[in-house]
């Protein structure tokens, strides 16, 4: 197994800051825009984005957490039962601009599941997607991110491992792991 570091703490901080400025360009003053982090690691990324945005624009931004466990198309294919995480969307998304946030975009199936799960909370005016890592050339569904931290060419034998301090890790690191080597 071979590991290659994609982002360390310094580069992750710079990436989060850049993504926030892209969001500001498109959504300032954020009066009709909300953030929704996908459980589990997308929530950590969404909290960092929210915190940085609020630091820059000096205004609160609404954030929700969305669990997609029971909306996944492989939900019944697993040998072991899945454990859902918390869904907490304490606001109405009807006619809002929603920014879905996740750590990694791979096949696109998680984003599709999130769109299905999100429909229970209303019909947004617009939905955009933000991801830290975009594994290009690996989609099963034609989904693209509007905001991308870093694009990475990957093959099936590779995996992106996101380690964040919110998970109890010593420091932030995002790895590309090749299981074939």
Automatic annotation (TrEMBL):
GO terms for MF: uracil phosphoribosyltransferase activity
Domain Phosphoribosyltransferase residue range list: 12-143
CDD domains (UniProt xref): PRTases_typeI
Assigned EC number: 2.4.2.9
Keyword tags: Glycosyltransferase, Transferase
SUPFAM superfamilies tied to this protein: PRTase-like
Enzyme class: transferase
Record bears the keyword Glycosyltransferase: yes
Cited NCBIfam families: PRK05205.1-5
PANTHER family in UniProt: BIFUNCTIONAL PROTEIN PYRR
Protein's UniProt name: Bifunctional pyr operon transcriptional regulator/uracil phosphoribosyltransferase PyrR
Organism from which the protein derives: Reichenbachiella ulvae
Gene of this entry: pyrR
